[in-house]
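### Sample
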Amino acid sequence: MESYLLDWANLLLRWLHVITAIAWVGSSFYFVFLDSSLTPPADAKLREEGATGELWAVHGGGFYHPVKYAVRPPQLPPHLHWFFWESYSTWLSGFALFTVSYIWNAGSYLVDRSLMDWSPGAAVSVALSFLVVFWILYDAICQLFGQRKNGGAIVGALVLLLVCVASWLACQWFAGRAAFLLVGAMLATAMSANVFFWIIPGQKKVIASIKAGEPVDPIHGQRGKQRSVHNTYFTLPVLFAMLSNHYSFLYTHAHNWVVLILMMFAGAAIRQFFVMRHGWKLGRNRHPAGYALVGIAAIVATIAWLTPRQEATAAAPATANYAAVQKVLEQRCYQCHGAQVQMKNVRLDSAEAVKQHAQAVYLQSVVAKTMPLNNATQMTDVERALVGRWFQAGARTD
């Protein structure tokens, strides 16, 4: 019953998390596009009011005319929309999903005893510390170097180094799938913390100054803009890390931390292309195709590097009947799918059960290689190839 209810919780939280993430990422991308596409107002009245940019757009049969006031509008409107619940809802639903999927059964999903033989409690504590420590260090870097000359480049280099170190540590300490997800959660936490600690408080201070009739300090807008820009570059790396847990060839690699860094770097480079492309269309910068090419090159290089070799398949026994497969299942799978325990309501200790779940066994153990979980029972490539050959020959159990 517990496993069944956890599956429902996982499904519903994942559904909620995807919906809120779409809302957050969509609004974030839109405002980056908007900022990059604004042109000086053509209307003299708008310029006199302090407007710094405008955009005319058409969508859904109507025309839209957003106008930006970089410091303060001539007067505050009666209704002002705030963009923060998209961020908070995404983080809260994501943390709840992480709790249900990984923390609840940390001994199985977080811990890989071939890497670190620690207790589930210790693994959970260290995993949560990743979220906190990364934010503290990232925030310190932004505050120390963000306002200096060439501060953007310094901050970018130090944050890249910090992400690389965190990725390496996560992959040394945690099961590969959990490590990738943890790095994504770490970056997503920093993104939401940027909104909570800097962007929204800065906007509230600006509004308080306007209401009090005091001069508006532009530093609040500058800091908010800085953190917002960081968030847009974190977005594609975070999405990759979150999606990677479906593809075991990524996180089971011997140098999985390098795979993670390369793919996140590719995502950031491609995001840079799209950000700068808006300015290029208005003649503000040269064509940013180079960034896209660098990102694509990183992806292609990773694909080539991870291309599987055929030695293991060639070494598989020629005889792949049910008797041979049964020996593999008994040694590698019965612990979780036998008479005593049936994880996910799957039992594999009879010919009838194996025939019923043959396709799932093939997909999970041979194609995706997600089973056994974290390869806790050390299923070999030769054994996987044997199961694959048996399934492709018809999965006979007689």
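The mean pLDDT is 90. This sample (Urate hydroxylase PuuD) is used throughout the tutorial notebook.
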